[in-house]
Structures are given as C-alpha cells and as structure tokens.
Amino acid sequence: MTATTRPVPAGPVLPGRGSLRGFLHGLPGVDQVGAEQRAAALGTRSIKTTAKAWAIDLAIRMVDLTTLEGADTPGKVRALCAKARRPDPTDPSCPAVAAVCVYPSMVPVAAEALRGSGVHLASVATAFPSGQAPLEVKLADTAAAVAAGADEIDMVISRGAFLAGRYDEVHEEIAAVKQAAGAAHLKVILETGELGTYDNVRRASWLAMLAGADFIKTSTGKVPVAATLPVTLVMLEAVRDFRAATGRQVGVKPAGGIRTSKDAIKYLVLVNETAGDRWLDPDWFRFGASTLLNDLLMQRAKLTTGHYSGPDYVTVD
Amino acid sequence: MPDPTTPPDPTPARLAVRKTYKLFVGGKFPRSESGRSYQVHQSNVALASRKDARDAVLAARAAVRAWAGATAYNRGQVLYRVAEMLEGRREQFVSLGVPAAEADAAIDRWVWYAGWADKIAQVYGSANPVAGPYFNLSVPEPTGVVGVLAPADSALLGLVSVIAPAIVTGNAVVVLAAEAAPLPAITLAEVLATSDLPAGVVNILTGRPAETAPWLASHADVNALDLTGAADPELAVALEEAAAGTLKRVLRPPAAPTDWTTDPGIERMTALLETKTVWHPKGM
Amino acid sequence: MPAFDYAPAPESRAVVDLRPSYGLFIGGEFVDPADGSAFKSVTPASEEVLAEVAEAGPADVDRAVRAARAAYDDVWGPMPGAQRAKYLYRIARIVQERSRELAVLESLDNGKPIRESRDVDLPLVAAHVFYYAGWADKLRYAGLSAEPAPLGVAAQVIPWNFPLLMLAWKIAPALACGNTVVLKPAETTPLSALLFAEICQQAELPPGVVNIVTGAGATGAALVAHPGVDKVAFTGSTEVGRAIARAVAGTRKRLSLELGGKAANIVFDDAPVDQAVEGIVNGIFFNQGHVCCAGSRLLIQESVHDEVLGALKRRMARLRVGDPLDKNTDVGAINSAAQLERIRELSAAGAAEGAERWSPPCPLPERGFWFAPTLFTGVSQAHRIAREEIFGPVLSVLTFRTPAEAVEKANNTPYGLSAGVWSEKGSRILAVADKLRAGVVWANTFNMFDPTSPFGGYKESGYGREGGRHGLEAYLA
Asked: Which chains touch C (3 or more CB pairs under 8 A)?
C-alpha cells in the first residue's frame, strides 16, 4: 500500500514489459474527494508573524523565475536574470531565487547573465510544451541546452503515450533524456492538467521517478489547468513513499497558477505536513512562477514596514 | 406669464432621472442588438429580437453546468437571498403598479422554493428495491436550458412562479416577459442581478413573445419550453409543434386561468426534471 | 524543533461578550431560578471560569414547560407553516451572521479546536436550521402523514460534545413541525445555548416557543418526567438513555434516543491508503474523540496492517494538540475532569489487558484537561477498549482476514451507530454496508454530516433519526 513494503522494480534498469504496468496499476488508488479535502484543510493553516517571514524568504529561495514566451528576447532574459540575482534591489537581506527557467535558445544569454551568482539555470527541453517530437529531436534539444550552460533540464513526458498506456515508452524516453542531460538535474513535467485523474498523477510520478527523474513537476503552464494543491499533495505523497521504498529523494515542483504569497505558503504547509522537513529546501522543492516573486516581495515589505506595498514599489522584470 | 410681483424660484422642482429598461442577458443589461424599443407607461422598453434570444440561450447554456453542479444547499441559499433582496425593493414594485399583496406573495414564493432546493430529491427520488444484488437509486436532475413564456395575468407573482421552480433544481432559463408587463420583469432582473445568482441562470427578454418564442421553440440547444404565458392558442400549438423537433419537454398553457396565490405544489419543478437511475452490484 | 514552526495564530476572544451570570430562558426572557442555585462553566483548556449559570430545579422546569405549552396552544401550534418557516430562516441567518462569535464561544466552553467549531459546527448549525425551515410549510410532501400535526411540547436533553449543533438538531425539526421546546444543555457546555436564546429574542421568536433550562442530571430528569411533556428527545450516553426509556414507559410520551457507539472503521487491502489514513484520523481524533459515532475500532485487513499502521503513526505525529483557540490546533482539550478520568481509566485497562499503547511525542499544556492522541495495537474483541465507549482520542486497532470476518467483528457489539468502509471496490463497499448493523455507514470518508442526511443508531445506540426527511418523523403525529 504505502511503498514501504511494496516491491519496487529496480531502476534505472527497465523492468520487463508488463511488469511496469502491473506495478503502476498496483499502486494504491487516490480518492479524489478525500485528497481534495485534505489539501483544502491544510489550506486553512494560519501562518503568521515569524512563521510567515520565514516562509516568504524560503519561498523566494524556491522560485524558478520563469519566462517561456515566443516573444522572449535577450533583453528580456537579461532583465529577468538581474531580478533573479537580486529580487529586491533596495534590500540586501532579500535572498536570490533558486533558478531562472528559459527556452533553450535563451540559455546562452541567461548563462552569461547568471555567471557567478549561484542562481541555477533551467531550460525546458524535449519539444516543450507538447512533447510531440521524435525522440532524437528531444535528445538533441536536451544536449544543446546542457551544452549551452543549463544545469537543470525541465522535460515534458509524452502524455499521449502515457494515456495510451505505453508506460515502457515513456520510461525509456525519460531514461534517455536523463542520460542526455548528463550532470544536469532532470525535472520531469507530468502535465497533470492533461492526465485527468489523481490515480494517473500518482502513476506518472512513480514512472518518472523509476526512470531517473531528479524532480517531478506538475505543469508546463501552457494548458488551462496548471498546479493545484491536491495534485501537489499526491506528488508529495509519491516522493515521500518513493524515498521510503528506495532511499532516493526526489524533488517536487508545482508550476503555473501560483501567483500570491498566500498560495505559496499553502504549498509550503503542504510540503511540511506531507513530505516533511527534508523537502523544505530549494534543492527539493521549487515554484515555477513568473508573477509570484513580486507578490512575495510585496508581502515581505509589508512584514518589514508594517504597511501594505503596491505594484509600483517592486520591479516589473 | 410669470407673476411680476414674486421673483422667480431659483431652484425649480427637481426633475426625475428616468430609467432605461434594457434586457437581462448573461448577468448584464444590454440593449436589444436590434436597437429597437417599444413604449410602456411612458418608458421605452427594449424590443428583443431573434438574435437576442440566441444570445440568451448561449448565456443560459454557459451558466447551467455550474448552476446544476452547485450544491442544493447553495442554490437554496441563493433563492433565499433573492427573497431578501426582493423584500428590500418591495416598494419599487408597488410603485410600478404591482399590488402590495402580490409583491408580498412573490417574496414568499421565493422562500417557498428556496426550501425545496435540498428537498425535492428527497421527495421525488427513490431507493428502488430491485430483485437482485444491486444498489438502485433514482435521482432527479435538471433538464437544462428552459425557455419560458411568462404569464401576462400576474406581472410579478406569476413571473416569479414560473422562474423559481425552474431554476431551484438547477435549470437555467430564458424568460420572455409578457409584452404588456415588462417593467416588473426587468426590475426583478435587477433584484436577481444583486442576489448572488450566477450570471446567465436567469435571462429575461422584453418585447413580443410572439416574435421571439418561435426561435426558442425551434432552438436545438433548448431542452424544455414552458408555455404558461402563451395566451394565444394558435401560437401555443405552433410552439409545441416546433418544440417537437428536438423533443423538448413542454409545459402546456393552463386550461383555465391560474390562481397564482395558492400552494403551487411540486409539479412545476418535476416537469423540468429528468430522473437518473443508477445500478451498482453488491458483492464482496 | 521543526524547520517550519507555525507561530501562534490565536482567534480573538474579543468577539465574545459574556455576561458574568445567566438566568434561565423561559417565556422569552432570562429569569432567575426559583431557589437561586447556580453553577460555574469553565473553559477546559485552562479551567478558567467563563460564567455562572442558573441551575433549574423542578419548579423552574415546571414553569418552562407551562411557558412552552402556552406558546404551543396560543401561537406556534396554530401558526401557518410558512410563518414558522420565516422565523426559522431568520434564526438561521442570525446564526450565520454571528457565527464567529458562536464558534469562539463554543471552543471556549467545550475545548474543541476553533478550526472545527468555525469550519464544521457552525456551518452545520446554520445549514440545519435552514433545512428544517424549508420543511415547515412542506410537511404534507414528506410522505409521513396525510395530515401532519405537531406533538406539542418537546423536552430535549443534549450532550456537551457538540453543544450548539446538538441544539440545532433538536430545536430545528421540532419547531418546523409546530412543536415548542424546553431544552436542557449539558452542564459543562451551557453557554452557546444561552447565546442562542438571545438569538431567539433577536429574531423576535414568540415567547415560550424555545425555553432553555440549564442544570445537571437532576434538571434533565425532572424535565423528562414532567407530565406536561409530549415528546422526549435525548442525545447522550446509553446508560442515561436506558433510564429515560424506563422513565417514559407507560406514558404517552414519544421518545427518540441518540446514544453511544463503538464504530468499526474497516480498511480493506485495496483502500486508497492516504485518504484512509486521513479518515481514520478524522474518525477518532475529530473533536478529541468526543463523538458518539467516532471510528474507535479500526479493523485493518491483515495483509496491509503494517503499512497502514506505519502511515497512521506518521500522520498522528503531525497532529497539533493545544490551545483550542489557535487556528492551527487539530486536537483541543478534553471537555471535563470527569471525562479525562474516564479516558485515563479505560486506557490503563487497555494496557493492563495486554494491548500495546502508543502515542506520538506530544507536549501537553500544564493547566486544563488534556490527553494525547493514543492508539492501541494488538487489541482483541475481548478487551474492554474494544467494547466500551471511551469517548476520547483513543483508537483500538484490530485485524481481520476476510470481508466476512470484518463484518462479524464490526457487528459484534451492542452498539450500532456508525461504521466506516475503505475500499476502491464499489460492489464490496455496498455489500459490506448491507451487512453492517449500523445507522450510518461511511464509505471512503468518515464523520460526514449534512442536514439532509438521517443520523441515528441501531441496537443500543438508540432509536429515531435526526436529519433529513426522516428527522421530521420524531416530531409529527
């Protein structure tokens, strides 16, 4: 049931055809109503004063500051990198974000702009966001991003293959991208908004972890339903159980739709009460977001100054 | 000719600001796309067109899924809120010529139907003791989008008495207000618009039902037609025939004039409900 | 210390304005008791005295019953249902408007976490009154009687675990059906009922329709025994329920009883584990386990026993025990010293009989009445902790091998209030539910309540149902 005593197929060696399917379908089910109730209940936690200040700084340190637009230019990306290094130019005590996340073509620009900052550089790859490209193309995409300086790769799984039940194919693909990514950390985007059920989210989480994912990530941000609390709850349960079963810890990254400090703190509560202390660290939990950072900065200012801040008092990049 | 002995009053009697009566579609108050209006009691009232009816059906369809999916408790709360808001505007209806007793009865009618929201399934649904190892449950569900011809004989109470039973169970309505009594209808729309009722659940068109009703009757995305206000027998038959094209549920006009003040019963609700029966085996 | 240490987040007490002392609510007014007796209500979290409350003697009970009778004869009985409905709707609205005040008071007087009084008790109270308000003018549609008529004066005695919710469960259907009531709240939790009396005044409810007499067991006994009462409704222990059933024997009084329980919560090997664990926790630690339908016997299929237990312990370690007014508290204070003593005594018996006791590390406040969430493994049906209602945060864990064995063990109790079933297989859930001798069966959920859903027990858990269309039956001739 929980993975503690459930035999896990050895990874990264691919289990025989059929056994992966048997394993994934043997995972305990997720009751939708119960999962959503639990997430909603944790959403009512009241995080105040010192706890709030701590949580906001941690959330800033967990942001993957993201721009994934067709209109991205080197100028836009450089501005974003400057913001990532120093989110609040007026306050040196404000921490830097975890990473900047861009398209592969923007990696060289970002690598230059982030050099020496300690801010990680993530690139989406594998025909982001649809994943609808031949494997060779996806591997080349990945290798190019790494070669240009990305130390984190955010790949998308083939939802089509997953939903069609071709789990082995998805597994092979993730494993191949993992190899192509080399030393770069691999975040595997499940695109949970397209998976339809929490059962599928749990299965896709395990599938990605078995194939070698360093992180599992909810969404591309390019489909209508992005990260939600219950989806993240199910994924946190998966990484918790996977660690208990294999000893290997995998990170979680909700992405898309997290815009306010209040939202971010709910996620941190979820992490705290589901996976626990070990995941309360930018190495193990990230927020994929573009507008969240400014709200975190405004709330941070509110805590420091005692009055509410406004959008004219944080930088627009 | 002004009296030369007294100076002219520097502050003439205040001139009233008149209201523009518009349609109520999708929670907004648009003019008719046709740009037409007609006069009722010195007010210009929007004269709805075929395309307004089409827009209203779109608005109702867009609203009905969430409204039907809302909890019965929530729908009951919203209807009770309508009663509260109507109570607050009671005098306004009286000033439009609605008898005070009718205004009171209309408020109470919302309260009556508010209470049905979470009870109609308990009265009209059933657990069925089928002869076998099966769980078997029948539950009512709203039929969907309902076109309503509002009665002309009771401008407020009659109107409320056809809208409330349709929406309390989760339907959305497109109401064609009686041609001669549009002002209480649009004023009711102003009540509905401020009552937590989701946009599009009730849409009210003023004008000539004889012009717009055929478009509702033949519209493929309308599920039911309430002909209570179709006073012209020929029109009623024609609408019922048109409704047959997509097998709409039809409430025929009453055979005799309706006494809107009596206990309305549950028939207006059940006429616009489907019954869904679920079978499930029972075994270890 | 944990990395993410939630700072205190106390709900403000300022919203509650308590008077130093309260009289009895009779005939629409607060009056002094005939002999002037009073008792104190304390907050179990710190033993601080909240207010002094009058203790009703037989003369006061008589006065209250007469007031109820007069209101029934002259006003409430003859009143059209639609009018009664509007009074009840008013009350429901006022409860909604004053819900935070009521929630804080409930947590103060009872010890339950504000999260529960705010998110569970109060919303259910308002919803219950709304629901029965709607029935008041629809009784002939309920299918219970061709000419539904009220019974008269209802004597209602309620417990301390959900003071205001139990009041709503009693008063709302009674009033909707046209009865008037004399209600006695529990002696440890009388305050929200007295605030409810103020709400009745605010709603301009006719005097005498609702009367509240505070006091202990003797007051309740006098009320139940009063010859002017037509109907008795009681929620509380099976022992007192039995005594009441004897007391009304041979009279024309109608009786409904909602009594104790020892519910089985059955976890099959195909259960959705994470949600089952939540349900187990909610089933026994909700309201400190002061719940008659608590899932106090956990029956786990042996093939998944270790895994479920491991997950359950991990989850229990996350429970936050402490200040009931802190918005992040999951488990509050035990309601009284007497109840705490009973929980301790039965837990000691569990350990003495050989069951293995476990609690997560859990610092408890020094003042007030506290008991750490506790579970016992290795429990058998023969143990006292598997048979007797503990009415506290104590879970007994048993195992089974087959569905038939689960059903047999679940039913092996004189109680029959509720049960839980956890499985992803629908047909099994329905088959097991069919065989369980319990008035409420929760499948893949637990401790769910709704005004539309009938609640009540089989066997020694009582008779009659509260809630839903069935809940009208107890108050209609």
From this structure: A, B
